[in-house]
UniProtKB/TrEMBL annotation:
GO biological process per UniProt: protein secretion
Keyword Amino-acid biosynthesis included in the entry's annotation: no
Membrane topology qualifier: Multi-pass membrane protein
Main location: membrane
Keywords noted in UniProt: Cell inner membrane, Cell membrane, Membrane, Transmembrane, Transmembrane helix, Transport
Residue stretches spanning the membrane: 167-189, 209-236, 374-395
Gene Ontology annotations for the cellular component aspect, listed alphabetically: plasma membrane
InterPro entries in alphabetical order: GspF/PilC, T2SS_GspF/T4SS_PilC_CS, T2SS_GspF_dom, T2SS_GspF_sf
Coiled coil location: none
Name of the protein this chain belongs to: General secretion pathway protein F
């Protein structure tokens, strides 16, 4: 079986694009004809996916708007397949049209919305798919789509804010790195004869010896070092995409100074919001915990939540086993415990999520303010080290001559 990308024309004259798994191109043509579609182009999907990788990625703003419009159409009683058809025709992005067309085709063949989205992981991240899955299984699909859109908008807003705040530090870091590399690779070797002469007269300072070794090493093996770093980054990304890699990285992320609380609070907020929404829509606690654990966006927290669900099935309350994992802040656990006693957990969970989101915004502001001086110190220290290592032997020689 092979996956084929197709472009066909419907009876109404609309172009339809999507993917079909079949044994041959002829079988795809026959399948399209059975659906009253006139094939225009059919080719193996590999060539299409290869070309799509070089297209500009779908902007978060467009993705959020598409999900919001889909939520509005469903809320107004428009069937899912028809809603996707409308969005496909209105989308300004050809790539988004192709994605929506493929999702529509898969749903018409019996797939759920989140399952169809899962075939486009380069467009819909795991968290988006998990939230939509929660909405599908909890019978609040419209609300889950709206929540996903709001989450994407908040994420993009924070990302833009961080990018804006990091523009100057990033410029300094780039400029400082270039200056340091130019000094080490091109400027330092010009002094090698002088330093060799000084070394014969006496020992060179340790900083100068280190600088000379680093300059010689980068001059000889700089290209190999760059290739090794690129390979290491590629391998790390592949490993990070695996289950074991994600669990290890998520565990490290939660323990990082400054950044750790931000990652953990963001995951806790998503868990509380999804769990509250599920409970409010009548989903049983154990099922709601199973779904919301996947929506947290952190494997370590999700594992702890699923372990807590096992204790709840034996008769414990939610707050008792959750507090044992040590990942959720004590004040949040206290609020959950009080809400359980008051039988108002679903409403309190959403209030908790709102409060955590505000806290995360404040933490991000603090983080950005700390990064700029930290980068300045690091790059300034690197340049200062090179300058001192170059000038120190000269000063020592002048002192000895005096």
């Amino acid at each position: 079986m092979q996956e084929f990308a197709y472009t066909a024309r419907s009876m109404t004259g609309q172009d339809v694009r999507g993917l079909i798994t079949a044994d041959s191109r002829g079988e795809v043509m026959a399948m399209l004809s059975e659906k009253a579609l006139c094939p225009i182009d059919v080719h193996p999907a590999k060539s299409q996916s290869f070309s799509l990788n070089f297209n500009r990625p779908i902007k978060t703003e467009l993705l959020a708007n598409t999900l919001t419009q889909l939520s509005d159409l469903l809320a107004n009683g428009v069937p899912l397949l028809q809603s996707l058809e409308v969005l496909m025709q209105q989308s300004p992005s050809e790539r988004m049209q192709t994605v929506l067309s493929d999702i529509r085709t898969r749903i018409s063949e019996g797939a759920q919305l989140h399952e169809a989205m899962g075939h486009h992981e380069d467009v819909f991240n795991e968290l988006t798919i998990s939230i939509v899955r929660a909405g599908t299984e909890g019978a609040f699909l419209e609300e889950s789509l709206q929540q996903t859109a709001e989450f994407l908008e908040r994420t993009e807003e924070l990302r833009s804010k961080v990018r804006g705040a990091m523009a100057y530090p990033a410029f300094l870091a780039t400029a400082g790195s270039i200056v340091t590399l130019v000094l080490i690779v091109f400027f330092v070797p010009k002094f090698s004869d002088l330093f060799a002469q000084l070394e014969r007269q006496g020992t060179l300072p340790t900083a100068t010896v280190i600088l000379l070794w680093l300059s010689d090493f980068l001059g000889r093996f700089g290209i190999l070092v760059a290739m090794a770093m690129a390979g290491a980054i590629y391998g790390l990304r592949k490993w990070a995409a695996s289950r074991s890699g994600r669990q290890k990285i998520d565990g490290v992320k939660t323990k990082l100074p400054v950044f750790g609380p931000i990652f953990l609070n963001g995951a806790t907020s998503r868990f509380c919001r999804i769990l509250g929404t599920l409970l409010r829509n009548g989903v049983p606690m154990l099922k709601a915990l199973e779904i919301s654990s996947d929506s947290a966006g952190n494997v370590v927290l999700g594992t702890a939540i699923r372990q807590s669900a096992e204790n709840i099935s034996s008769g414990e309350s939610l707050s008792a086993p959750l507090s044992k994992c040590g990942l959720i802040p004590p004040n949040v656990m206290a609020m959950i415990g009080i809400a359980e006693e008051a039988n108002n957990l679903e409403n309190v969970l959403n209030n908790i999520a709102d409060g955590i989101d505000k806290k995360v915004a404040r933490q991000l502001d603090t983080m950005v303010r700390l990064i700029e001086p930290a980068l300045l110190m690091v790059m300034g220290s690197a340049v200062l080290f090179v300058i001192v290592a170059l000038l120190l032997p000269v000063f020592e020689m002048s002192t000895s001559m005096s």
